Amino acid sequence: MNNTLIVYYSLFQNTKNLALKIAKQTGGTLRELIPDKNYSFDYNTAAKEVRNQISRGFCPKLISGNEPIDVYQTIFIGTPNWFKTIAPPVRSFLIQHDFTDKTVIPFCTHGGGGFCQIENDIAKECPKSKILPGIAINGTVAPGEVENWLGTIGYE
Questions:
Q1: Per-residue pLDDT tens digits for 48-92
Q2: Residue numbers of the domain that contains 30
Q3: How far apart are CA 39 and CA 50, in angstroms?
Q4: DSSP state letters, 10-65
Q5: The domain that contains 15 carries what CATH number?
Q6: Which InterPro entries does the entry mention (predicted)?
Q7: Element housing 66 (H / E)
Q8: Which residues of the chain have pLDDT under 70?
């Protein structure tokens, strides 16, 4: 069994598409985080909902994706960049699991903001894990981009 897990949350499919490319390259298990209440599909309404949740430190209940991670050694964690940090469903996943002695690799999609605080916020929730440099994608993934990044971080 491959001991790699790719966990992600994606509202508009950008992060999902990146997660699929990582899974294809690594052979890892793909796991989508699904909160109990969906965000609005209208961008402006969703932005208001998310901004409010982040400011309150809200962590939604996950109805899918929160299964145990014990059998995995390497965990890729994907999120859209929402107001310079991780999406609330990703925060829910992070606080509900123990990442001790695991390798954690962040990835994100964004509209121009890069990682901002995402890598730091994931590292705060995984203090006893090894954090490898992540990848932040604005728009579509260029051919070979994921493969080159995995080689750069020494993923085997």
A1: 777 777 777 778 899 999 999 999 999 999 999 988 889 999 999
A2: 4-152
A3: 8
A4: -SSSHHHHHHHHHHHHH-PEEEE-EESSPPPSSHHHHHHHHHHHHHHT--PPEEES
A5: 3.40.50.360
A6: Flavodoxin/NO_synth, Flavoprotein-like_sf
A7: none
A8: 1, 40-42, 44, 156
- Tell me whether strands 74-80 and 29-32 are parallel, antiparallel or unpaired: unpaired
> CA 99, CA 85: separation in Å to the nearest integer?
19
Amino acid at 98: D
pTM for this entry? 0.92
Cβ neighbours of residue 153 under 8 Å, at least 6 residues apart? 105, 132, 133
End-to-end CA distance of the chain: give it in Å, rounded: 15
Contact at 8 Å (CB) between 59 and 35?
no
Q: Supply the pLDDT for residue 40.
A: 67
